[in-house]
Design a protein that fits this description.
Elements: H1 3-19, H2 47-60, H3 66-71, E1 79-80, E2 86-90, H4 95-100, H5 107-119, E3 128-131, H6 145-162, E4 166-170, H7 172-179, H8 185-188, E5 192-195, E6 198-203, H9 206-211, H10 216-232
Parallel strand pairs: 2-3, 2-4, 4-6
Antiparallel strand pairs: 1-3, 5-6
Helix pairs in contact: 2-6
Length: 250
């Protein structure tokens, strides 16, 4: 084919594309990026990720708590390493979490990240973070007992899949629900509890610390206890952070 014939063929092809509604062509060598895939929809060959994704799909369709199902923007299942040694458990999503669909992403989430990264010398992606509830209660009120009971199956299934060695309960609601106790967080903190063979340390919720900075010192004591328990196993990369000297818990 001559050069003029090539040119005519190219013009005809472009005209055909224009009539079909195509107005732009990608640059040679570059392809448009595929749309992101939601974590709950992603396919994986990892058995724990697959199992968690299956539970997350159930949670997304859950309507056991009529008020929460009606008022939520979306469910907040949990996030992190499905093979994590350590799970952080809060009480329920807040407004930021309800909007983004991830746990602990607001100011309290920033403080939790500081505790993990600066205080414990770990990465946030090394742990798993979840809540007692997977829906935001209206007005950020505390979860009702019936709501916690309705959501308990999902919590238990997540923990059964992840199989952590340690759980850090953040706040009274998380600690009381997980451990099935009415004891105050003041009585529960500062010691190691057992939940189905998993060692549990309880401390104050980061949101409480934002309102009551004086409690940060006690929280650092609890985190030090958690660090020491994790170091006993001789696994992982736990390196006791200088939380007080860094100003993190001052």
């Amino acid at each position: 084919m001559t050069r003029s014939n090539h040119a005519k063929a190219a013009i005809q092809r472009l005209e055909g594309l224009r009539r079909a509604g195509v107005t732009h062509l990608p640059k040679p060598g570059k392809r448009p990026s595929p749309p992101p895939v939601a974590a709950s929809q992603a396919t994986t060959t990892d058995p724990r990720q697959s199992a968690l994704a299956a539970v997350a799909r159930e949670v997304a369709d859950c309507a056991r708590c009529a008020e929460l199902a009606r008022t939520r923007t979306q469910t907040v299942f949990g996030a992190g390493n499905p093979y994590a040694r350590l799970v952080f458990c809060g009480e329920a999503p807040g407004a930021d979490e309800d909007r983004v669909g991830q746990p602990f992403v607001g100011r309290a989430g920033g403080l939790l990240t500081d505790i993990i990264v600066k205080g414990m010398k770990m990465r946030r992606e090394d742990v798993y973070i979840l809540n007692i509830l997977r829906c935001r209660p209206p007005g950020n009120r505390n979860p009702l007992p019936i709501e916690a009971a309705n959501c308990r199956e999902y919590l238990d299934r997540q923990l059964e899949i992840i199989r952590p060695e340690f759980i850090c309960c953040l706040g009274a609601v998380a600690a009381q629900n997980l451990l099935d106790t009415t004891a105050s967080i003041g009585r529960l903190r500062g010691k190691v509890h057992d939940y189905r063979g998993i060692r549990v340390v309880c401390t104050y919720h980061p949101a409480y610390l934002l309102r009551n900075p004086s409690a940060k010192r006690q929280t650092w004591e609890d985190i030090q206890l958690l660090i020491e328990e994790m170091k006993k196993e001789g696994k992982g990369r736990i390196d006791q952070g200088k939380g007080l000297k860094m100003g993190l818990f001052n």
